[in-house]
C-alpha cells in the first residue's frame, strides 16, 4: 500500500468507464461507457454518457469544455478497466483520529467506563508531539486507503497536536473537518481537562486561527467547534461555545443520546432550572445553548424520544449514524429509517475507536445489519438497502458535513472526490484475473451490476479501493 501526497501542479483529467453514484436515497445511477472531465482545479466540468467508453470520442466532446489554455497532450486520461467502476469518495461524519491506536480494544466496556479505561489516557498521551505525528499520519493514510475522501475528525484538547492533524490532512490531500475537543468538567480526569471555560475557548480559537492560516479558503480543511458531549462541558462552557458558533458560523460536532447512563447523567447535570431549556431532554440542552443548528453534527442519536427527533428535524441538525461503535460498546441500535422519515439528514460515522474499523464501507455494511436488528424488533420498514447505505456513505454524509454542493456525486460543478473500485474477476480456471488474488470479492461474470455492488458492500474492503482522488488529486494508489 502506498499513499501519494498531494500533487501541486494538477492537470486537466478525463475519466472514462463505469461510474456509479447515488441519485437519491434508494437509487443508484449506473453510467457505463461514460466519461467525466475534471479541470485543473479538480472540478467536474463535463459529463458525457454517450461516448460508449471511447476515449477519442469522449475527448472530442469534453475537451472543449475545459475552455481556453488546455492542450490535448496535457490532459491525463484514466480509463477504468472492464468491471471496475468510479464511485464517489466516502465521507466519515464522525471519527476520533486520536483514538486510532485503540481500534478493537474495548473489551466488555460501555461508554462511560470505556472513556475512563481506554480513551482518556490515550488521548491525553497525544500531547507528546512525536506520538501525535505517528498516530495522525497513520490514521489519515489508513482512512484514505479505505476511500475516505472527507472526515469529520475529533483530535484532542491539545492545540498543537490538533493543529498538526489539520496540517497532515492538508499535506496528504484529505478533505477534513478538524475539531479541538472541549471538555472542562470532572467527567474527565484532572490530567485531561480544560482549566476553565475561558481557557477552553482560547484554545479553540487558537486552533481555528491555525486552520484559517493553513487553508484560508477552507478548500480542504476547516475547523469544527467540538464540545465533546454535554457531560464533559460546564454550563458556562456550553454558553461560550454556543456564542462562538454564532460568531463564527462554523460547524459544530458533538455526541448525543448514545447510552442510557449518559442520558441520565445529562438530566442530572443540566436541570431545566439551570439551563432554561424547553424540557429536560438531551436535545433540549444543546438547543438551549445555541448548539443545535443546521451546522450541527450529532453522533449516535440512539435513544432519542419522538419530541427530540422532531426538534432535531426542526433545527435542521444532522445525525452521524455509528453502527459499529453502537454495537461494539453496546450502546444500542439507532433507528435510522425513523430519523429519515422525520426528515433528519443522516450520514455514517466509523466512530473510531468506539467503532473498531476505520472503514466507511464496513460502517455501511453494519448500518444494513443493525437496521435488520431494528426490523426484527418489530419495525419491518426499518431495513436499509444497499442503495440506502451507500447514499448515507456519500451524499448523506456530504450534507451532514455541510459539503453537499461540493462532493457526494458526479455532477458538473462538483469536485472530483472519487475512488476507483476493482472487484476480483474469476477466470475459466477458477483463478482471479484482476491482479486481485488477495481480495475478498469474487465476481464470476454472470452477476448484474446491482449484484456486484451488493457483493462489494457485504464483502469488500480496502483491497478493492484501487485509487482515490480528492479535488482531482490522486491521494492514494494501491500498488
Ligand atoms: O463514542 C464515543 N466516543 C467518545 O470519544 C465520546 N466522548 C463522549 N462520548 C463519546 N462517545
TrEMBL record:
**What is the name attached to this protein's record?**
Probable guanine deaminase
The pathway where this protein functions is: Purine metabolism; guanine degradation; xanthine from guanine: step 1/1
GO biological process, alphabetically ordered: guanine catabolic process
Family matches, as CDD domains = GDEase
- Record's GO cellular component terms: cytosol
* Keyword Metal-binding on entry: yes
Q: Which reaction does it catalyse?
A: guanine + H2O + H(+) = xanthine + NH4(+)
Give the source species. Answer: Cercophora scortea
Amino acid at each position: 500500500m502506498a499513499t501519494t501526497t498531494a500533487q501541486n501542479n494538477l492537470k486537466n483529467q478525463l475519466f472514462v468507464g463505469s461510474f456509479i453514484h447515488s441519485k437519491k436515497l434508494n437509487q443508484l445511477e449506473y453510467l457505463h461507457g461514460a466519461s467525466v472531465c475534471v479541470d485543473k482545479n479538480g472540478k467536474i466540468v463535463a459529463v458525457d454518457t454517450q461516448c460508449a467508453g471511447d476515449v477519442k470520442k469522449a475527448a472530442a466532446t469534453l475537451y472543449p469544455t475545459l475552455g481556453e489554455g488546455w492542450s490535448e497532450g496535457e490532459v491525463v486520461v484514466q480509463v477504468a478497466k472492464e468491471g471496475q467502476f468510479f464511485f464517489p469518495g466516502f465521507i466519515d461524519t464522525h471519527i476520533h483520529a486520536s483514538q486510532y491506536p485503540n481500534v478493537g480494544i474495548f473489551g466488555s466496556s460501555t461508554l462511560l467506563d470505556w472513556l475512563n479505561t481506554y480513551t482518556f489516557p490515550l488521548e491525553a498521551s497525544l500531547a507528546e508531539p512525536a506520538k501525535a505525528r505517528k498516530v495522525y499520519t497513520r490514521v489519515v493514510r489508513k482512512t484514505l486507503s479505505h476511500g475516505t475522501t472527507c472526515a469529520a475528525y475529533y483530535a484532542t484538547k491539545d492545540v498543537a497536536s490538533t493543529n498538526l492533524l489539520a496540517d497532515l490532512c492538508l499535506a496528504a490531500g484529505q478533505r477534513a473537518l478538524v475539531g479541538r475537543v472541549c471538555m472542562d468538567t470532572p467527567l474527565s480526569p484532572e490530567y485531561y481537562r480544560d482549566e476553565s471555560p475561558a481557557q477552553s475557548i482560547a484554545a479553540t480559537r487558537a486552533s481555528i486561527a491555525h486552520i484559517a492560516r493553513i487553508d484560508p479558503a477552507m478548500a480542504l480543511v476547516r475547523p469544527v467547534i467540538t464540545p465533546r458531549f454535554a457531560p464533559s462541558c460546564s454550563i458556562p462552557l456550553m454558553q461560550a461555545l454556543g456564542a462562538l458558533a454564532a460568531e463564527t458560523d462554523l460547524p459544530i460536532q458533538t455526541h448525543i443520546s448514545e447510552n442510557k447512563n449518559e442520558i441520565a447523567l445529562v438530566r442530572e447535570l443540566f436541570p431545566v432550572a439551570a439551563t432554561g431549556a424547553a424540557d429536560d431532554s438531551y436535545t433540549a440542552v444543546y438547543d438551549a445553548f445555541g448548539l443545535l443548528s443546521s451546522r450541527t453534527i450529532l453522533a449516535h442519536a440512539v435513544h432519542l424520544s419522538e419530541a427530540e427527533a422532531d426538534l432535531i428535524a426542526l433545527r435542521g441538525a444532522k445525525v452521524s449514524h455509528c453502527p459499529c461503535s453502537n454495537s461494539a460498546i453496546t450502546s444500542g441500535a439507532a433507528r435510522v429509517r425513523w430519523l429519515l422519515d422525520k426528515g433528519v439528514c443522516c450520514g455514517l460515522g466509523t466512530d473510531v475507536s468506539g467503532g473498531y474499523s476505520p472503514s466507511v464501507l464496513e460502517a455501511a455494511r453494519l448500518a444494513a445489519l443493525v437496521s435488520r436488528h431494528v426490523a426484527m424488533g418489530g419495525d419491518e420498514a426499518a431495513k436499509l438497502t444497499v442503495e440506502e447505505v451507500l447514499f448515507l456513505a456519500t451524499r448523506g454524509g456530504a450534507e451532514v458535513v455541510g459539503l453537499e454542493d461540493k462532493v457526494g456525486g458526479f455532477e458538473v460543478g462538483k469536485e472530483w472526490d472519487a475512488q476507483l473500485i476493482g472487484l476480483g474477476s474469476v477466470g475459466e480456471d477458477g483463478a482471479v484475473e484482476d491482479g486481485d488474488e488477495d481480495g475478498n470479492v469474487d465476481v464470476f461474470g454472470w452477476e448484474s451490476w446491482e449484484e456486484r455492488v451488493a457483493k462489494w458492500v457485504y464483502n469488500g474492503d480496502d483491497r478493492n479501493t484501487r485509487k482515490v482522488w480528492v479535488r482531482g488529486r490522486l491521494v492514494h494508489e494501491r500498488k
